[in-house]
Design goal:
D-Maltodextrin-Binding Protein, domain 2, 3-stranded antiparallel beta sheet, 6-stranded antiparallel beta sheet, membrane, ABC_Gly_betaine_transp_sub-bd, single chain, cell membrane, 36% helix, 303 residues, signal, disordered N terminus
Length: 303
């Protein structure tokens, strides 16, 4: 993250004081005389820390800069999910301000005290779903897998538990443990489904921990039914294209209706949408809870 602090007080922690919507934010150190005061915008270098280019949340993030007049001239630093999390961790350790593109479910909300900035213009939309999509013809070719995929549904806390545990152990191991510990829920997906003998199936996912969690859990479930499962991580546009072209069999990864809405509209006639496998997701600008700011409209304009 680009961070510009003026003076000799870089290592000192500070609090952020909101002086009113449209007015300049200030950061100060407990009122000690002689210490520099730095505006919030300057401290952030008028930059929001993003993730991978092409991600649906990045498309919405850039649209937000266009919709809010106070954000004219602000920039979004394209990075990676791992890079964003590293910057977030370092900022919180030093109690510095930072704004990141964020989403839930995600283990960062269990690891840090964070909050979404309010979005009065609704650019990021409200709560979203994560849907399951499959290629046309899958129900006829693999009726057992289709039935499991159609039944698959879990809660945000299930996904977050897998994601958090995967920070210490490989996703493959964590997914197996989760399936073993949640047999009652898994049985709801697999009850009455017949075993197969090594039938190959490919699940296409986006390269984020949310989708790794669901894909690896489904991998374990389908393998227990005798399937030979391949997981293929790709960018969102490629994910939809692969299912539409029949190059992949299914995906548990689309965030709808907004995050991946443009891709869905492009390919909806060539895929089968099985509906939500998780509800209650959210995307937006996220800040540490210690930052005294609550809305996107409160971010200071460039002077």
């Amino acid at each position: 993250m680009k961070l510009k602090l003026i003076g000799t007080t870089l290592a000192l922690s500070f609090s952020l004081l909101l002086t009113g919507c449209g007015e300049e934010e200030t950061a100060q150190n407990n009122g000690n005389e002689g210490e520099e005061i730095v505006s919030l915008g300057e401290a952030l270098d008028y930059t929001i820390t993003g993730i991978e280019p092409g991600a649906g949340i990045m498309e919405r993030s850039f649209s937000t800069l266009e919709e809010y007049e106070n954000l004219e001239g602000w920039e979004i630093l394209e990075s990676s999910t791992a890079g964003m999390l590293t910057e977030l961790d370092q900022a919180i350790q030093n109690e510095r301000p930072i704004i990141v593109t964020g989403w839930t479910p995600h283990y960062k909300f269990a690891s840090f005290d964070l909050k979404f900035l309010e979005d009065p213009k609704g650019v990021f939309g409200g709560l979203e779903d994560i849907n399951t999509i499959v290629r046309k013809g899958l129900e006829e070719d693999m009726p057992n897998a289709y039935q499991v995929l159609d039944r698959f549904y879990w809660e945000p806390e299930d996904m977050e538990a897998v994601m958090l545990a995967a920070q210490e152990k490989p996703f493959e191991e964590v997914a197996k443990n989760w399936v073993e510990e949640n047999q009652e829920k898994v049985n709801e997906w697999t009850e009455g489904v017949e075993m197969v003998d090594g039938k190959a199936i490919e699940l296409v996912l986006t390269p984020w921990d949310t989708e790794r969690a669901s894909a690896h859990v489904m991998e374990v479930v389908l393998e227990q039914l005798g399937y030979n499962v391949t997981l293929t991580p790709v960018d969102p546009a490629i994910m939809f294209q692969a299912i539409a072209n029949g190059e992949g069999d299914a995906s548990l990864a689309p965030w709808l209706p907004l995050t991946h809405g443009s891709f869905y509209e492009q390919y909806q006639d060539d895929i089968v949408d099985l509906g939500p496998n998780l509800t209650g997701t959210r995307i937006g600008y996220v800040v540490p809870a210690y930052m005294d700011i609550d809305s996107i409209e409160d971010l200071p304009p460039i002077e």
